[in-house]
Amino acid sequence: MCALGRYAPLDVAARQQPKEQLRIMIVYEDLLTCRVAERVFDQITARMASDCEIYLTLRSFVVLTIPALVEQAVSDAAAADLILLSVHGQGNWPPSVERWMELLVSERAAQHGGLAAVLVRPQAAASAARERCAALEQLAQLSGRDFFFAKDVDWVP
């Protein structure tokens, strides 16, 4: 006797429908900003459909100092639906990060999606945070992305 009758036929239409995909790239400054980005990422994924495929790429500022990895980081960013930059709200951009940003802008034709800023700052540094936020907004505009201010996190050092 054939046992195949016990199993329901495969739903070919359901199998052929592509799942929603979301590519997220997180660029973070240090361990603190990485932890904050993880919490924001958890909030984003909690709101996604259960069958959504999420592809996550993490890049630290330290990785962006390695010349061989900068091109890969630019390629990853160009393919991402969302770039989440989790950075301190003050300070100058390191030269390697500025270079990555310049390369990202030069890849504008392939850009889509959004760029979100998460600023982690001491409570007294509001004006410096505005400068960094403005720089990230300009990066989004020049790279052909929508800009989102995801979070402003105050902390006491």
Can you describe this structure?
The protein has helices spanning 12-16, 31-46, 67-79, 95-106, 126-142; strands at residues 21-28, 53-60, 82-88, 114-122, 146-155. With 157 residues, the protein is an alpha/beta fold. The protein has a five-stranded parallel sheet, with helices on both faces. β1, α2 (31-46) and β2 (53-60) form a beta-alpha-beta unit. α3 (67-79) packs across α4. 25% of the residues are buried.
Summarize the model shown.
The protein has 157 residues and is α/β, with parallel strands linked by helices. Helices cover 40% and strands 27% of the residues. It has a five-stranded parallel beta sheet, sandwiched between helices.
Strand order of the largest sheet: 2-1-3-4-5
Major sheet size, sense and barrel closure: 5 strands, parallel
Which band does the percent of strand residues land in? Answer: 25-35%
Backbone CA Rg: 20 Å
Cα shape: globular
The SS-based structural class is: alpha/beta
Mean pLDDT over all positions: 80
Order of helices and strands: HEHEHEHEHE
Segments where pLDDT lies below 50 for 5+ residues? Answer: 1-7
Tally of helical segments: 5
Number of strands: 5
Distance between the termini: 73 Å
- Helix content class: 40-55%
